[in-house]
Amino acid sequence: MMDEREEDADEEAWLQLRPVEPLPSQCCGSGCSPCVFDLYHQELAKWEAARASKDRSLLSGEESQSCPSKLSPETFLAFRISAMDRLTEDTYCVRFALPRDCQLGLRPGQHLILRGKVDGLEIQRAYTPISPANAEGYFEVLIKCYPTGLMSQYVRSWSTGDTAFWRGPFGDFFYKANQYGELLMLASGTGLAPMVPVLQTITDNAEDETFVTLVGCFKTFEGIYLKTFLQEQARFWNVRTFFVLSQTLRSWLGRPAGPPSEEMLAELGSCLLLVVVLLGPGPRAHAMKGVKCGGVLSAPSGNFSSPNFPRLYPYNTECSWLIVVAEGSSVVLTFHAFDLEYHDSCGFDYLEVYNGASGDKGSLLGRFCGQVPPPPFTSSWHVMSVVFHSDKHVASHGFSAGYQKDVCGGVLTGLSGVLTSPEYPDNYPNNVECHWVIRASGPATVKLVFMDFQVEGNEECTYDYVAVLGGPGPAHGHHYCGSTRPPTLVSLGHELQVIFKSDFNIGGRGFKAYYFSGECQEVYTAIRGNFSSPQYPSTYPNNIHCHWTIRLPPGYRVRLFFLDLDLEGPNSLTRTCDFDHLAAFDGASEEAPLLGNWCGHHLPAPVTSGHNQLLLLLHTDRSTTRRGFSVAYIGVVPMNVSCSRTDFQILISAQALAPLERTKVYLGSRNCAAQEAGGTFRIQARFDTCGTESQRRNNTSVIVSVLYIDFSAGGQEDIHEYEVRCEPRRKEASVHLLSGSDWLGPYAATAEHLQEAPPRDEVEAPEGPVAMVAQDTSDIVFLGLCILAGVLMVIAIVVLMLL
To answer: Which of 303, 306, 305 minimizes the C-alpha distance to 332?
Structure first.
């Protein structure tokens, strides 16, 4: 009897451990696999096996989370709530903690299942994390609470520190970079959540050029979720965002809102209606059915035309074509036929060509109308846009155009761009011959800078080679091969030709070179000057890489002043200048030491080169343009200024001031001109001469005078002024650049911004008998006199004693 009672008790214990079959309400309804019923059958099979073997250790309970690597579609894991932010009246952003630096491990497009219990009833719902896929130590979920929802009731009971149970991941949509040419994301309310990780994955990858149009549907503007995030995403060149406010749209349509149970459907319907208005041809186009108007052209080559071509194009039409070819190549655009309504400024019907995405005036290559076809265009990168616009009057036959991917040669007319050998950085093919013509607008020159170079080499470069024609040298042409980078080349005229040729065997990595033309590259050799960004004060172009070189005579230093700066701001996440930026280098190339890197609109302090050359570089990306910059520069003369208790001594290398005469360098007045000896200008003046005066600055007595260097020529006065100071008690001298001219803008009023005190070791040693003079010789003279006086006094005493 005792054994039977024990068996009954054991049977009841096993029955209590039997899994409970889920109710239909516990299914989230999203079609995930394994479903809650699949899990039930798995647990039931595990229970039956444990019961048959009478081994309860085979039954596994709920696990606590140790690392997201254990995330499982079959087992719920516990995650602690670290923060709950209320975004709107009924929507929360909930953050869950992960151990240390662990990641959740979801791929973009995947979701999780949340389990909750309300009044003893278990419920499950699917949610997509909105945190970045590589977020460490946490993940975030967007949850909307409905008035009668069971899961909403459960979520409202949460507070920071509580634990929630999740399992996953689920979802068969795996996004791959450049898998699609264009994505349309249509989201209503919290339906935005699945779009967020996919969108962020695209914009985080600089190599992903998928175009994204996101249409979000919300009730009111205040109810838009993640506004800051969406605004940041919309700044990328390949992202467009639109918002539909359903309450406003319903009143415009004259429809009632409907009962609450139809809110989501009504909002989504309104959203779909607006997408048709935004992305379709619209009622204004009046185009024939089936006629294409705009779109993304991603084939290696193709043709397109105005609507109804060759018949009359419709009124009130705007079409935009975006041409995208493989990265590393360019787009060649040619026109076969052209007939648009004529206007002096093409203000009625017109066609616009952009070097990149449309709508950015900085990338506009030209606007055309009439019957004269536009010239052929070659983009400076792999994207080009064409926009056709017609008004409500006068229609013509329109245009027909063709494009092709040009990886080998072409005519390049942009301000700057890049040249690469075919298939770079992979080995170039055999038997290839490419011809590029780089053409600057107007009388400007073209500069070519090679960044990488590896071509089959031999002594005379007769196998594989790069030839540059139109530059200086024998026959105005050079052949280059091997692995040594060619020097920077500048054309003699407004055109430079580049030829690349390979023979039937043996290849290499090839080459990559930047070209600069027009106002995007200049070399300044005058002692002072100023310049600005292309099209300043209008917006600068997109996707340019510009060089300005200041090259002064040996011995000078370059002092650069920023008169205006307005560039795209820094990256809001890293606070660094990752987009458009201006950089200065202490030399003639980008390999020289960096003096500074700037963006935004705050004026930097002046910078000074350590040598006689300075390179200023402007880099802009594919989106967002501003006013640009304006700078001024002046050649600063290094000098050695010393003083004693009674006089100044100034030494300047004559090489730095060549070909100035010594009389052009004077202290205080022309009567105190410099003396020249051994390649050095020298001024030695007592404090009571040469216009020196005693002043009191910061409660310190100083002796002050002004050094003049007269560069005037051709009837134009150009005199540089340096203030020299001496503190006699400390015998310390300093020099400061002065200027009263307007060309320095905000820096003209004060000398304190312009302090220039070069180290003594930068001054070249004078030749001949003239040597550098020590800071103070008066003490030595005085000490010598004292010793001499003492000796004479001793002699006198001895003589008197002898007498």
So the answer is: 303
